[in-house]
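dude i think i finally got it to work??
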Amino acid sequence: MINIFRTLFLAVTALSGYFIFSGTFQGQELYGAGLGLSFGFLAIILELAVRRAPVRTLTGAILGLAVGILLAGLVTMPIKRLPLPEVFSGGATFLVFAVLGYFGLVFGSRKGNEFEYGRLVKVFKAKSDDEYVKLLDTSVIIDGRIADICETGFLDGAFVIPQFILHELQHVADSSDPLKRARGRRGLDVLHRIQKMPSLDVRVVDKDFPNIREVDAKLVALAQTLNAKVITNDFNLNKVAELQGVSVLNINDLSNAVKPVVLPGESMKVFVLKEGKEFGQGVGYLDDGTMIVVENGRKHIGKNVDVSVTSVLQTTAGRMIFTRLRDEAEREEYQTANAG
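look at this
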């Protein structure tokens, strides 16, 4: 079908050249048909070349050509006003248009792949969700807490999911390991849940970096390209992104920030679940997952005990609360007071 269209197109260009010359240059109609046919072949060659070029390259070439022609028009305006022979003035004008148009075409086509259209849109509109783009890491999607945070309204705007993150999730979901398969499917369910939230603009982008093998490195490179923030709970990705100047929203940091403040000397009730690493220690957990280490709590495993906080250790990986049995703490205080 395409070949038929091309044949008809060549016939139209040849006939156009024939009739144009028949009205202007009597007896030269065949030359006109040949010239029209030549322009037709040239257009088809250009069409074949354009089909193989990426859209960004074509867009860049068109914009570059337009800028080059505009500059040529500005440059030739003074030339046309000079008292020069018409042949010289016309030749100079044609030369300027040809040089600047060609330069704009070549420069625009080469720089088209580096151009980000989102930045052009920002120039013509006020602040929008595009200025607060956030990239989701695989680990934070599988974790699932991101969906709960979004439902509370603390996060909104544009969420960008790269194709290479989706491919990694799909790979995990198709794993032969039942645990990995369940984690991957959970991540896909979380993405579907986020997509249905009206306050969010979830976008899937095809941008990739073939020269970069690691998914985390690709994510950091994409964040730099889009000037976006990365949402993750991966400690290593957090550090790598910060070293490269990329803003990071760490879900673990948020979780630690909203945990209740516990001060040394406060009392609480803890269920001793298991023994600790050190001799005699017992370990329990708060409802938010905070680990509580109970000194001499090993003998109370499986029981609820009253403890007194001695110190709190805060790290990027979480928080640990060190405690003593309240009876022992009160006994020591009593003995200290009597000794005093």
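Confidence is low (pLDDT under 50) at residues 121-129.
im so relieved honestly
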